[in-house]
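pasting Bacteriophage phiJL001 Gp84 C-terminal domain-containing protein for the record, 261 residues
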Amino acid sequence: MSILIKKIITKLENFAYCFQIKLANGKELNLTGSDHIIKNEDIIFLPNSGLELKEAEFNDSAQNQVIIEGIFEEKGITAEMDLNNAAVKIILHNNGVFEHFITYYCTLYTKYDLNFKMHLKPETIKYNQTIINRYSKTCRVSFGDNKCKVDKTLYSGVYKIKEILKESLRIENLDKENGYYNGGQIIFCDNNFSSKVLSSFGDLFILEDVIPDYAKGAREVKIILGCDKNFITCCNKFNNAINFRGEPLIPEKDFINSHLI
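structre below
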């Protein structure tokens, strides 16, 4: 591990994070992962949306990536915002000292019902991806949005909880075949916890996240069918080929890359 990477890791462990986010439409947000407001001269970083730097990968091959997660919240990031291609400046704060860490771009923005995930990469990756992503074998829109037009309520169900474990639960009276909800979203009723369904077999559902204690008192869950953004899924599961936003018949991206060089 290089000395530079060791220094970066040390910074990540000891500082609070401030985020200056500039959306593609020009709107700017100043947020912090701290639990209180942080001021830097005339800039106020608000503790809204619970931004958390979940993963930071830096290596000597410059294949760098940062993953940020948060929740939708007023005066923070709302569900109506599009964070694709947003510029995200991360500032490290400690005892009144502010230090610019990185400015990366959101190359992948994933929206769930209550929360979201941003994958950030350097500017060079952003521009390369912009060229390649003019064409995509997978759908470019979000499942259930105004371009997809699928009504997610038609592909969801509310079930009673039989048992809650650490990262899994059992439900009663499941009326779907094994794996039907794989890749979907599960929402614990009466609280703000939700998670991705990794797999299901019988009445057992394996989740992506550990179920927190505050959610274990829930008696029911709502489960929403997921979409893997492939054309065959769009046709067979949702009968929605007319709204598929992609080019399923183009060659793989490696083919495109070889012709861009």
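Confidence is low (pLDDT under 50) at residues 253-261.
Helices lie at 3-14, 123-132, 231-236, 253-260.
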